[in-house]
Design goal:
By secondary structure, the protein is mainly beta. Helices cover 0% and strands 58% of the residues. The protein contains no helices and 10 strands. The model has no long low-confidence stretch (mean pLDDT 94). One of its GO terms (biological process) is translation.
């Protein structure tokens, strides 16, 4: 039998999640700390192994609950702009913030 899963939308991206999954998502605006509970209401699809429900665009009443495991920033991405023979060199670094979450339930 297939495991139940849902497809949620957050941070402009879509994620396929099942109960117990751990994933990294874009930082969510607001005051959050590790251990906080999150609820995602933008559920695009739910499949329980027998029935598939597809939203248009979202499923009314469907929710995915999660807890925040960690709030951190990713490894540094270095961006270098360089033009030969013109004395042009720019170096910038960026660390993207993210939330690491664990899915607790699909409703």
């Amino acid at each position: 039998m297939q495991k139940e899963f849902a497809i949620i939308e957050t941070g402009g991206k879509q994620y396929m999640v099942s109960e117990g999954d751990t994933l990294k998502i874009e930082k969510i605006k607001g005051e959050f700390k590790a251990g906080d509970k999150l609820t995602f209401e933008n559920v695009l699809m739910v499949d329980n192994g027998q029935d598939t429900t597809i939203g248009a665009p979202y499923i009314k009443g469907a929710k995915v609950s999660a807890t925040v495991n960690k709030i951190s920033r990713a490894k540094k991405v270095t961006v270098i702009k360089y033009k030969a023979k013109s004395n042009y060199f720019k170096k910038r670094g960026h660390r993207q913030p993210f939330f690491e979450i664990k899915i607790t339930s699909l409703k």
